[in-house]
Structure formats: structure tokens, C-alpha cells
Automatic annotation (TrEMBL):
Reaction it catalyzes: 6-phospho-D-gluconate + NADP(+) = D-ribulose 5-phosphate + CO2 + NADPH
SUPFAM superfamilies in UniProt: 6-phosphogluconate dehydrogenase C-terminal domain-like, NAD(P)-binding Rossmann-fold domains
Stated family: Belongs to the 6-phosphogluconate dehydrogenase family.
6-phosphogluconate dehydrogenase C-terminal domain sequence ranges: 186-476
Active site: 190, 197
Function: Catalyzes the oxidative decarboxylation of 6-phosphogluconate to ribulose 5-phosphate and CO(2), with concomitant reduction of NADP to NADPH.
Origin species: Bacteroides coprosuis DSM 18011
Subunit structure: Homodimer.
Gene3D superfamilies assigned: 6-Phosphogluconate Dehydrogenase, domain 3, N-(1-d-carboxylethyl)-l-norvaline Dehydrogenase, domain 2, NAD(P)-binding Rossmann-like Domain
UniProt-recorded name of the protein: 6-phosphogluconate dehydrogenase, decarboxylating
GO BP annotation list: D-gluconate metabolic process; pentose-phosphate shunt
Length: 489
């Protein structure tokens, strides 16, 4: 009879099999199982056990009952399957074989509301459920990812040794994995992480496009610019891989980046970030611009036709190369700070709304290594949220206020020149407009309120009366005193 294993893992696609190997390399005995689809996914377990897992402390199973029985109690089972109904179907298959106190861990990109529901369902049956956002891709899954677990609190002490052992380690030795909070909070944090990732990628792509088209930099020159940026305040995983992408050549000896079609895909977490920010009444404009720009990029044929209808050839202005590169760096850094500030503001609002008690400093630290958005300034973000005088907004923290003030001239300069040259920079301009709106004590929203009251009697507040008192005006002289209720969606 085989020795009982420490943990089970279901789903042997790229992330699943690499996580299994990561677990085994940290000293854990692992059971693996893969749902089979006749004619499509047959033999997955056998191939893995006879291949990459050969000679390792990994046991493969093709029957779910045998798989569950092979794991020591209380069982810890990590599910790495497609988000949505496949998770629910798998849970229903597992329930009859589980014992009281067993723990299910969903490591996929599930919607946080689904996780909220699954936590309650599992607990109602005597089990425990953890929704763990995992970031880092294939490399992170194998060598150390950022992991954001939340759900049934009593499960944390059970899963903590495993999850923290397979997580990436920051330079101070701390694992990039810590308890986030109850319910679906872990997957909510991962969702915002992915939204920030969308924003970062869009900002970097706009930087590349400006430098290429306004300055005419070659791919090798561009690679050197991004490599230099990666040595300073912009140091991050995405900047690093961008430098590598720009100098990569295919088998024909040609730059691959120039052969890749300009239509970007997306799997949904960026969109969910925007939708949930809207539900919470929080601005997430930069990330929304990034999501919409991916959607627009997919309409390639329409864009090609429009380019023929509306663009005329014109001479481009000449720019000082060094100055423009510096302006792009300023715009990129300042816009990234805006993106993170917006994301953390949404996290704080969600924490308040759902009573999650999120530790924003801890979340920033979890993102320092392993994950896609790991950046050098996440230490500064953590420090800002741990300050005795915690800022109401990340950009109000003294360190980031000083950084923005230093970057502002180049940021404005870049946006104005790019728009003058008819270059699309939706993320840069969205970030700058957000900053202007945030730092304006007066906005034209008074006109919006007047219009709402004029056509719908939605009322308004007055500058000469206390906040919280609402008024309605009979604008036309024909209306009455009846007014609509006051509320915000």
C-alpha cells in the first residue's frame, strides 16, 4: 500500500503540472489527477507520471475516488481547471469522496462572486474552501509564484506551509503568499492584480509605439532603452521581458515583434476589474482604457479601412531623441503610479464594502516577486500603507507626491506631442486626465447635476448649504415640487 500523500492536485495543463513539480521539489508528496475527455484528454496523467514526474514523489490517478483516498486527512486538494462551470462540476464530483474538514483550493482565475458562493456551499457540507489567486505564469508555477489565498479562515494554517513553500520569495526572504481575507477576497485581489497588469502592458506598448514612430528607434535601440529603464525606478518583470522581446529574432534571423499581428486577446479578468470597480462606484479609467483598447485592436479590418479614410500623409516634427526618451520614461512611471493607485483604491473600497479587512501593505508585498506585475516600487507602496499617517489615496503619500511632481512636466509634454502627431495613447492620456481631475478642487459636475435635476428632478447639493442637503429647482416654471429620491449606484 502506497504512503498517503500531503496534497492532491487536479488539472495537468501548464500551470497544474508545474505547480505539482514545484510542490514535490519543496519536499511534499503529491497526488495528481486529470479529468478526462474521451478522445481528447486521455492519457494525460500517465504521460506526466512517465515523463516530467518520473522518479519523483508524485502519484498519478485516473479515478477520482482513488485520487481522494490517496491523500492524508484532512485532505488538501488544489484544483487547477478552467474558471466557471468546470469548477462547480468538479466540486460536485469530489463532494461524495470528501470527509469533514477537507479543504478544496481553487487556484484558477475564478470570479470572486463564484468563490463567495463556493465557500458557503463547501462550508454547508462540512468542508473548507480556499480561493487562491495564482500569478506568475508557467515560470512562476514551477519556480515560485505570487499566491493570494482567501476563504475559510480555519483552512489557512493547514494550507499555509504548502502554499508559502511554493511561493516566490522577496529579497528580504518573505514568501509572496499570505492570507488575504474571507470569502472571495483572494480572487478579488488577483482580479485587481490582473487589471493592473492590463494597464501596465498597455502603457508599455504605448511607450514602445511612441519611441518607434516619433523617434524612429530600431528594435535594438528600443531594447537598450527598456534595458536601461529596467535598471532604475521602472525595474519590473514586464519591462525586462519587453527588452528581451524587442531583440528576439525568429528562425529566419528577423525580428519576431515585427511579424506579430496587432490584435490583442484577453481572458476576462481585466474586464471583471472594470465591471466591479463600476459596481463599487470607483474610477478605474486607465485599466478600462487598456481593456477597451484590446477590444478595439481586434477589429483589425475596420481599423485598416478607417486609416485609409481619415489619415493624410503629413510631415512629422523632429524631436530631440534624449529629451523624448526621458519624457516617455516620465509618462510611463507616472502613469504606472496612477494605475496602481486606482487599483489599490478599488481594493480599499471592496474591503470596506464586503467587510474583508484587507491589508493593503501585505498585498503590495505579495506582488513583489513571482507575479506578472512585480515592480521595484511595491516596497514603497507597502511602506506608504504602513505609515502612521496612512494616506487616503496612494498619490497623497509624501514619497509618491514627490515622484509625481518630478515626472509631471515630461508626462504632460509626452501626451501633448503624441496627440499632436495623431498617435493613439489612450492609457497615458487617461492617466493624466485622472490626475488632473483628482487634483481639481472644482469640476464641471455641477452642470451634470443641473441637467439631471432639469430633466429628472434628481436634485442637487448647493455650495452655500451644508453637504447632505438636497434641493430641486422648478427650472421651466411648469413643473411641481415632486422630486426623485437621492441615491448613487
Amino acid at each position: 500500500m502506497q504512503k498517503k500523500t500531503d496534497i492532491g492536485l487536479i488539472g495537468l495543463a501548464v500551470m497544474g503540472e508545474n505547480l505539482a513539480l514545484n510542490m514535490e521539489s519543496r519536499g511534499w508528496n503529491v497526488s495528481v489527477y486529470n479529468r478526462t475527455v474521451p478522445g481528447i484528454e486521455e492519457g494525460v496523467v500517465d504521460r506526466f507520471v512517465a515523463g516530467r514526474a518520473k522518479g519523483k514523489n508524485i502519484q498519478g490517478y485516473t479515478e477520482i475516488a482513488d485520487f481522494v483516498a490517496s491523500i492524508k486527512a484532512p485532505r488538501k486538494i488544489m484544483m487547477m481547471v478552467r474558471a466557471g462551470s468546470p469548477v462547480d462540476q468538479l466540486m460536485e464530483q469530489l463532494f461524495p469522496h470528501l470527509s469533514t474538514g477537507d479543504i478544496l483550493i481553487d487556484g484558477g482565475n475564478s470570479n470572486f462572486e463564484d468563490t463567495e458562493r463556493r465557500v458557503k456551499l463547501a462550508e454547508s457540507k462540512g468542508f473548507r474552501f480556499v480561493g487562491a489567486g495564482v500569478s506568475g505564469g508557467e515560470e512562476g508555477a514551477l519556480n515560485g509564484a505570487a499566491i493570494m489565498p482567501g476563504g475559510t479562515k480555519s483552512a489557512w494554517e493547514e494550507v499555509k506551509p504548502v502554499l508559502q513553500s511554493i511561493a516566490a520569495k522577496a529579497k528580504d526572504g518573505m514568501p509572496c503568499c499570505d492570507w488575504v481575507g474571507p470569502g472571495g477576497s483572494g480572487h478579488f485581489v488577483k482580479m485587481i492584480h490582473n487589471g493592473i497588469e492590463y494597464g501596465d502592458m498597455q502603457l508599455i506598448s504605448e511607450s514602445y509605439w511612441v519611441l518607434r514612430n516619433l523617434l524612429g528607434l530600431s528594435n535594438e535601440e528600443l531594447s537598450k532603452v527598456f534595458s536601461k529603464w529596467n535598471e532604475g525606478r521602472l525595474s519590473s518583470y514586464l519591462i525586462e521581458i519587453t527588452a528581451n522581446i524587442l531583440k528576439h529574432k525568429d528562425k529566419d534571423g528577423e525580428y519576431l515583434i515585427d511579424k506579430i499581428l496587432d490584435t490583442a486577446g484577453q481572458k476576462g479578468t481585466g474586464k471583471w476589474s472594470v465591471i466591479n470597480a463600476m459596481e463599487l462606484g470607483m474610477p478605474l479609467g486607465l485599466i478600462a482604457s487598456a481593456v477597451f483598447e484590446r477590444s478595439l485592436s481586434s477589429n483589425k479590418e475596420v481599423r485598416v479601412e478607417a486609416s485609409k479614410l481619415f489619415h493624410e500623409d503629413k510631415e512629422k516634427s523632429l524631436y530631440n531623441k534624449a529629451d523624448m526618451i526621458e519624457d516617455v520614461e516620465s509618462a510611463l512611471y507616472a502613469s504606472k503610479l496612477v494605475s496602481y493607485a486606482q487599483g489599490f483604491a478599488v481594493l480599499q473600497k471592496a474591503s470596506d464594502e464586503f467587510n474583508w479587512d484587507l491589508n493593503l501593505a501585505s498585498i503590495a508585498r505579495m506582488w513583489r516577486e513571482g507575479c506578472i506585475i512585480r515592480s521595484v516600487f511595491l516596497n514603497d507602496i507597502a511602506a506608504a500603507f504602513e505609515a502612521e499617517d496612512k494616506p487616503k489615496h496612494l498619490l497623497f503619500a509624501p514619497y509618491f507626491k514627490a515622484e509625481i511632481e518630478q515626472m509631471l512636466f515630461g508626462w504632460k509634454h509626452l501626451v501633448s506631442h503624441a496627440l499632436k502627431e495623431e498617435m493613439p495613447i489612450p492609457a497615458f492620456s487617461s492617466a493624466l486626465n485622472y490626475f488632473y481631475s483628482l487634483t481639481s478642487s472644482s469640476l464641471p459636475a455641477n452642470m451634470i447635476q443641473a441637467q439631471r435635476d432639469y430633466f429628472g428632478a434628481h436634485t442637487f447639493e448647493r455650495v452655500d448649504q451644508p453637504r447632505g442637503e438636497f434641493f430641486h429647482e422648478n427650472w421651466t416654471g411648469h413643473g411641481g415640487d415632486t422630486k426623485s429620491g437621492t441615491y448613487n449606484v
